[in-house]
Write a structure and sequence with these properties.
This protein is α+β, with helices and mostly antiparallel strands and 180 residues long. Helices cover 32% and strands 25% of the residues. It has a seven-stranded mixed sheet, sandwiched between helices. The radius of gyration is 16 Å and the shape is globular. The mean pLDDT is 95.
Length: 180
């Protein structure tokens, strides 16, 4: 494997097209859903979703040699909504005091180099520095290869919909510990 160096930093307006491409490629290739407006509106307008609000952020990983954006990770102050999420999850992670991790996506040729782990660490540090967040929440679709194992290595499961009667949406909900 070729040694590559990366810089992780907050996205700028100049990064948004490349970040959007990483995100859209992921939802088409890895999720198989393609763009679904009710789930992916933030991908189309990441500036409004992550750059404008003070308590939100979009991080990018940039390959130093090429200058290409190769990974993304975002955080916002919106807790999980009910529906579609279980009521207990929505009540445990209310908007305003919950930092929700979103869009942790790495281009396939840059995976297994620690980028996602570094991005998540930066998001958690951002949430801790904010001072108003009490929890860091995320959910994942366990059918995406590697996703569930990765999140289990960083976070604790708070609800696994596969255990619900009927299996819910099959989503696994996590909380990432804050350092406080």
């Amino acid at each position: 494997m070729q040694r590559r160096d990366y810089t992780i930093r907050p996205a700028t307006p100049a990064d948004l097209d490349a970040a959007r491409a990483v995100m859209l490629d992921t939802v088409y290739r890895d999720f198989g859903t393609g763009y679904v407006p009710r789930w992916h509106g933030d991908i189309i307008d990441p500036a409004a979703a992550y750059l404008a609000p003070a308590r939100h952020t979009l991080l990018v990983a940039v390959e130093e040699d090429s200058g290409d954006v190769v990974a993304t990770a975002a955080l916002d102050a919106r807790g999980p909504a009910h529906p579609p999420n279980p009521r207990e999850v929505a009540e445990r992670f209310p908007s305003g005091t919950t930092a929700q991790v979103r869009r942790v996506y790495v281009r396939p040729e840059h995976r297994r180099r620690g980028l996602a782990r570094r991005l998540v660490a930066e998001l958690v540090a951002f949430a801790e520095a904010d001072g108003g967040y009490r929890a860091v929440y995320l959910h994942t679709d366990p059918s995406v290869p590697g996703a569930e194992g990765f999140w289990r290595s960083l976070a604790k499961v708070v609800w696994d919909e596969r255990e619900d009667v009927g299996g819910g949406q099959g989503i696994v909900h996590f909380e990432i510990p804050m350092g406080r």
